[in-house]
Amino acid sequence: MEKSKKALPIVLASALAATPFVSVPQQAHAIEKLSVTADNDGAGKESDYTIEFKLEEDLDSGETITIEFDSDYDIDDDIDTDDIDASFDVKKVSVDGEEITIKTDEELEKGDKIKIKITSGITNPDDKGSYSVSVEAGDEDSESDDVDIKKSSSSSSSKSSNDYAVSLSSKAAGEKVSLKLGKISLKGSDELETNSTITVTFPEKNMLPSSIDEEDVKVNGYTAKSVSVSGSTVDVKIPSGADADDYITLEFDKDAGIENPDSSGKHVFKVKYDGTTYESEDIEITKNGSSSSSASDSFTVNLSDPGAGARSSYTFDADFGSKELKADGELVLEFPSSDMVPGILTASDFLLNGKPAKKATAAGNRIALVAPTGFSANSRVKVEVTYGAWISNPKTAGSYTLKATVSGRTLESKSFSVGGSSVNPTPTNPTNPTTPVPVPNTATNNNTATIALTQNALGKQTGVNVAIKGLGVGLQKQRDFIEIVFPVGYKVPAYIAPANISVNGVGANFVAVRGQNVLIYPSQDIPAATNANIVINPAANIVNPAVKNTYSISVFTSEERGLLFARAVGVGMPSPAQPKPATPTPQQPSTVIPVNSASFKVNTANFTLHGKNYPLSVAPYIADGNTTMVPAQFFKEALALTTQWNNTSVAVISGTKVVKFTVGSKTAKVGKTEIQLPTPVVLKNGMPMIPIRTVTDNLGYKVGWDAKTSSVFVHK
Question: Which stretches of 299-392 are assigned E, i.e. beta strand?
Answer without folding.
Answer: 302-303, 314-319, 330-334, 350-352, 355-356, 359-363, 366-370, 380-385
